[in-house]
Amino acid sequence: MKQDQAWRLRELAPAFEFFPRPDGDAHPRRIAITSGKGGVGKTTIALNLAILATKIGEKTLLIDGDVNLANIPILSDSSPSYTYVDVLRGHKTLAEIIYEYAPDLHILATGSGILELMDKAADFSDKLRYQFRQLDGIYQRIVIDTASGISSAVFSQLVQTDEILLVTIPEPSAIADAYAIVKIMTYFYPKHPISLIVNMANSEAEAKETFEKFNLITQKFLQRSLKLAGFLLFDEKVRQSTKTQTPYVLSNSNSPFGKNLQQIADKIFTASSTASDLWEERIN
Fold it and tell me: What DSSP character marks residue 167?
């Protein structure tokens, strides 16, 4: 790798633990939903997967990781009284800002203005880690909907998870941005589990072709093979659900999109609790 490329990658190195993961094996399993590019359905997938996690008895915390454009409260038609900003400023504890959205599903909203607090927040990272440790035994699953784009803030969230679901669509720009996520994670954390979701596909064949081409690229240039977590067919009702602020799976579970999403949930939430068993990683 050229020196200037390495320098640019180091600029994206995780700088701060946004949502610290306590040490030990008792903490809730964490999954990040990320994309690299906006507009590919990442937040919709995160919200609906979190709901499906509760259907199998996993009490779940959904974290809105976008520090500037938080969308989970909008898509879920919920209004948090306090946000993560209040925790970082020391006005509230983590337990005080988490609110119930549905039975067994709670939401942690980040709010805005977090970036300006990062320098100060680093001074009490141990306090944040202690507060997250208090969630042990309360939740079985934490789903983090990361911000869109490629930044140090996004990677600071990704590295605190047990696994990453990377969302793309069959478009060159979305695929390029998704590849950038894999490239940077591989540079810093080559064995961190990453699996791909192909969204808005016109057919199963198109979805599989997109994944196969993507995987060939990662194998050739990154010496890494990924797994296909699943695909989601394009469905106009998904857009309608975002407009009405009603999670799709609550009323359309029998549609092709709903069935595809359930298949992804089954693969993720009913698999072994060991990360290495969840996703097979091959480092060539």
Answer: E
